[in-house]
Each structure stands twice: as C-alpha cells, then as structure tokens.
Amino acid sequence: MKHNNLIKAIISLSLAIIMLCSFAIPTFAAEKPEETVEPRWTSIANMHIDMAFDGTQGAVSGTARKQSTADIIAGTLYLYKWNGSHYEYITEASGSKTIGTLGISIDFESEIGVQYKAVFTVIAYTDNIGESETIEYYETCA
Q: What domains lie within the chain, and their CATH numbers?
C-alpha cells in the first residue's frame, strides 16, 4: 500500500514540474519578412447585379463602385439565355468611370419561362495594378 502511494506521489510531482516548466518557456510569434508580397485587393468596393421582367420586356443592370484610392473602374455586363442545353449569348454592354459608381444596363426582349443569366466582370486600377472580379446572377422570366 505504501508502495502505491509513493508511485502516485512521484507521478504527481513529475506532472507538476512539467506544468511549471511549460509556463517558464517563452513563446514568440514569427516576424513578418521585409519582402513579403501581398495582394492589393483594395480597388473594388462593391458590385451588384439586378434583373427585372415586365411581361416580355427584360432589364438587367450591373453597378460597381471603386475605392477612393482606385484611379479607374471598367466593366462589361454579359447577358445569356438558357436554350434547354446550354446558355446562349445574347448581348453585352461595357463602360468605365474615373469618378463615382459605374452603372451598365441592358434592355432586352424576354421569353416567359426562360432562365436568363447575367455576368458582370469588373476591373479597377490602382497605380496601374488591376484588380478584377466577376459575379453572376440568374433569374427566370415569369
């Protein structure tokens, strides 16, 4: 019985020493190297697509706002329709702005029951470095 108590005491003392030593060991975060290359995802503030139908008249618009640090923002809005097996290209519109929000719109003849897809691709430049982003939107004419 004394032998078991001695083993328990030695194990408890060993664990206590290990725990105390772990708190005594300093830890340091790695420093960031001086020549780290980081992406500059700061040119595009936000992007959005809206699509609406009024009977067989459709309208789609894409808006994008650049950050104040960006020099220019440009975009292209593409319109497609589902033909049963794949999306068929209909038309596109492009534009660019140096001040304010970029807005591009397309009016089109739509067919009831057909799904349409809008793709908005935007690129904004800050110090001649371009940042691009693409978003998609799907809606069915009802």
A: 44-140 (2.60.40.3930)
